[in-house]
Amino acid sequence: MSHSGKISRKQVISLFVLFLLPISLILTIYLRTNDSRQFDVLTEELFCSELSGNTLSLHYTLAFPGDYGIDEPARLPSYEPQPDSGEEDIRAMLDRLSRISPEHLNEEDAYAYDLLTRYLNLHLTGTAYPYYSDPLSPSSGMQSGLPILLADYTFRTPKDVEDYLHLLDQTDTYFDGLIQYEKEKSENRLFMSDASAGKIIEQCCSIMDKDLLSSGTHFLHTTFEERLDAMRQEDLITEEQKIQWIAENDRLLTTVMAPAYENVADAFTILQGSGSNDMGLCYFPDGRAYYEYLLASTTGSSRSIAEIKTLLFNDFQKNMAAMGDLFYRYPELSVLSSADITPFPYVSPEEMLDDLKERMTNDFPAFPVSEEAGFNTSYTVKSVSPSMEDYCSPAYYLTPPIDDMSSNIIYINHKNSPDALTLYTTLAHEGYPGHLYQTVYSQLYMNQEDISRIRYLLHYGGYVEGWALYVENLSYDYAQTLVRDQSPITAAWYEACRLNRNIQLCLYSLLDIAIHYEGATPAKVQAILRELGITDEETVTAIYEYIVEEPVTYLKYYLGFMEFTLLRDAAQNAWGDDFNLQRFHRFVLETGPSDFQGLQSRLTS
C-alpha cells in the first residue's frame, strides 16, 4: 500500500468540512449573541424611555426605579401637537426590530419579539386617527382617574412625597395640554356630544368640591395625611417634615389643582355644542376604520368583526337556551322571593377572599415563589371615597409595581351596595383568582425567569379583563358548592345570575358593534332592548350613552372571556387525556399578558 504525500479528493472535502464546522459554530454563536444583545438594548431603551417621561406610570410600575437605572425629576406628561402623532418613532423602532432575527433569540425573547412587532404595527395603524381618542371621557377619563392614582400614590421614601407634591404642582400644565387636545378635536369636528361634555363639567365641579377643599376634608387631604402618619410611625420622616408637607399639599390642592379643574370645566362649557356627532363612531369620517383598529388594540383579538358577531350571537343564543332550560327544571325560580334563598355563608370581603383562595387550589397553581422563600402576598380591601363613587367602577384592583408585589389593594364602590353573591363574584374578578392573582403570578414568574422587561409595558386589555371575567364565571360555580347541599334552589338561582350576567354583557357587546360599526340609532337600540323586555327609557338612554362614550369596553371583557374559553377548548383538543384546568391555567399565567394570536401560537407549538 502506497503512503505518498498526496491527499485524496475525499480527504480534501472531509478536511474542508471539518474546517467549516467550527467557523459555522462560531458564526451561529456570534449571530445569536449579537441579535440577543441588540434586542436587549432596544427593549431596555424602550422600557426606560416610556417610563421616564411619566412619573405616575413609573411609580406604579417600579417601586425602586433607581435599581433600574432610572433617576428622573418628577413630571406629568404634557400634550404637545405632533404632526406625525408618534408615527416616526414607531417606524424607527420597527426598523431596528427588523434588523434582528427572531430565529437567533431564545424562546422567550423570540416570543416577546413577535408580540412587540405586532403591538407596534397595530399602534402604527392607530397613528392615522390622532383625534379619535377621548382622554377626558365621562366614564374613564383622567379627570376622574388622576385623583384615584394620586390618592394611592405609595410613599416609601421622603423622595416619593416630594415627587408627589411636584406632580400636584404640574396638574395645571397637564390639564392645559388635554384642553388643547380637546380644542383640536373640536376644530376637526370630532368633539364629544353635548351630553358627554355636560358630564365632564359636572364631574370637574364635584370631584374638586370647594367645601371639602376649604375644610381640609377632601379625600386628597385625608389620604395624604394618612400616608404621612404611617411614615412618621416608622420614623421615615420627622414631625417637622410632616407638618411642612401637609401645608404644601393644602396649598397645591387649592391654588393649582382646583383651578386646573375649573379650567377644564370652563373649556368644556365653551366647547359644548361644537360636536358634530352624538351617535356611534361610524358617523365620523374614518370612524369604521378607527373602530376596527380600536377593537383589535383593546381586545388583543385578531378576528374579523363578522367572525366576532357570529361568536357573540351564537353565545347569546346558547345562554338564552340554558336559561330557559334552567327555569324549566326549576319552575319555582319564576316566583322566588328573597326569603326562599339561603343567606350567603360569608359577609365580609376578607372572609370571601379567604374562601376563594382556598376553593381555587384544585383549579389554579400556587404562586411560583413560596412563602418560605421570603415572599408573602397581602391585600387590603378599601372603600371608594364617597365623592368619587359616581365616577368609579363597582370595584377595581390597583396593579402593584413589578419589583414590590407583596401589597395589593382592592377598592369596593359602596354606592350601590352589592348583594353577597355579587360581592363574592366581584372579589373573584378583582382578587382571587382574578386580577390580583393573575398579576402577581405572571409578574413573579417573569421576574423569576428573567423575561424581557418590555413585556411589562405591552398592555392587553382582552387578556387582563377576559381572564377576570373567565374566573368570575368559575366563581359562580364555587358559590353554588357553598349552598347546593343546603338549598338546591339557591344554587340554581346563582346559576341563573351567572347566565343573566353573561347574556347582558354579550348583548351589550353586540350593541357596541351595532352602534359603532353598523350605525344603530338610539331608536334602533331602543327597539332591540324593548324586544328583550328592557323598556325603561332612562335605562335605555344610559346603556346607549355609555356604549357611545366607551367604545369596545364591553368587548374587552366579553370577547376576552370568549377567547379564553375557545383557548381552553383548543387545549383540551391538543392535550387530550393530559388536559386539566390547573395545567391550562398555568400555561396562560406563565405565558403572561399577550394578544390571543400569541397565546394560540404558543399553545400549538
Please explain how this structure is put together:
The protein is mainly α. Helices cover 63% and strands 3% of the residues. It is built from 23 helices and three strands. It has helices at 9-52, 55-61, 87-98, 107-126, 142-151, 158-168, 171-187, 194-207, 210-215, 219-233, 239-271, 287-299, 305-329, 349-359, 420-430, 435-448, 461-483, 488-516, 522-531, 537-549, 553-575, 581-591, 596-604, and strands spanning 378-383, 395-398, 407-412. Strands 1-3-2 form a three-stranded mixed beta sheet, with helices on one face. β2 (395-398) and β3 (407-412) form a beta hairpin. α10 runs antiparallel to α11 (239-271), α15 (420-430) crosses α17 (461-483) and α18 (488-516) packs across α21. It is globular and about 65 Å long. The chain starts with 8 loop residues before the first helix and ends with a helix. The mean pLDDT is 91.
For the biggest sheet, the summary is: 3 strands, mixed
- What's the total helix number? 23
Percent in strands: under 5%
Distance between the termini: 56 Å
SSE string, helices as H and strands as E: HHHHHHHHHHHHHHEEEHHHHHHHHH
Q: Reading side by side through the largest sheet, how are the strands ordered?
A: 1-3-2
Mean pLDDT: 91
Q: Give the C-alpha Rg.
A: 27 Å
Unreliable residue runs: none
Overall body shape: globular
Helix fraction bin? 55-70%
**Helix/strand/pairing class, anyone?**
mainly alpha
Secondary structure tally: strands:
3
